[in-house]
Amino acid sequence: MKKWLYGIICVAFLGLITACGGGNDETKEDTNNTQEQTTDEQEQTADAGDGDALFQQSCSSCHGGDLVSGGAPDLDKIGSKYSKDEIEQIILKGQGGMPGGLLKGEDADAVASWLAEKK
Questions:
Q1: Residue 111: how many CB atoms within 10 A of its CB?
Q2: Is the pLDDT of residue 94 over 90?
Q3: Is the same domain home to 18 and 63?
Q4: Which of 15, 37, 48, 103 has the most CB atoms around it within 10 Å of its CB?
Q5: How far apart (Å, rounded) are the C-alpha atoms in residues 107 and 115?
Q6: Quick one: 11 and 62 in the same domain?
Q7: What is the pLDDT of residue 45?
Q8: Full-prediction pTM beyond 0.85?
Q9: Does 94 lie in the same domain as 55?
């Protein structure tokens, strides 16, 4: 009798897992589409020449909107330590815990120019 009860519980549990586990592929696809739309919207909000706006969108979550209140290194005086070209290379390639490629091309150049003025 215990074996039958155990078997029924196992089948019911497997049925529950199967019912709850379906649809993950659609959710991931929807999430990816939403992320792509968000990225497209962000690109449209800031022009390539607006270093401050690009920084706020891509960098402020780690470095802080005021350049000092994030968990990453402070950038309020970064221009006195690195040149514009050095800052751009850090943005493109990354350094320490910062991954490279968060900004590219004109966007990286605009943010590097803006940060180089912070002395």
A1: 25
A2: yes
A3: no
A4: 103
A5: 12
A6: no
A7: 43
A8: no
A9: yes
Question: Cα torsion at 50, 56, 57, 58 (round to 10°)?
Answer: 100
User: Same structural domain for residues 33 and 67?
Assistant: no
β partners of residue 99: 94
Instruction: Give me the amino acid identity at 31.
Output: T
In 10 A of CB 43, how many CB atoms? Answer: 13
Cross-strand pairs, 98: 95
Split at pLDDT 50, 70, 90, the class of 30 is: low
Written in H, E and C, the secondary structure of the chain is CHHHHHHHHHHHHHHHHHHHHCCHHHHHHHHHHHHHHHHHHHHHHCCCCCHHHHHHHHCHHHHCCCCCCCCCCCCCCHHHCCCHHHHHHHHHHEECCEECCCCCHHHHHHHHHHHHCCC
**Residue entry with tokens 């215990």:** 2
What is residue 40's predicted lDDT score, i.e. its pLDDT?
47
